[in-house]
Give the backbone structure.
Amino acid sequence: MGKERLVEIKVFGQTYTVKTEAEEDYIQEVAKYVNEKMEEVLKKTKSVSTLNVAILTALNIADDLLKEKEKRIALLREVETKSKDLVEKIDMKMGGIEFGKRPITG
């Protein structure tokens, strides 16, 4: 694991100090993403409550995350299915024979 450091970020006009092992550039990118999402929510809702904007943003980000997890699971299942199909095809072509060996016929 990396060394813990303090990184100062700005989210929705507020400055926060984050204790993290991640690189500062990464944390700044995360903060930028959150800011962009909060701005999207603010434009759509016209809410003046920072708390409401933060909660709606958290819900939107959680929704995005869960959708991406579902896509990932579906993709992994597809890869697994295709891999099994390929293994079966290879086994059928080989006829269960190891490479370089010929069947003994009598």
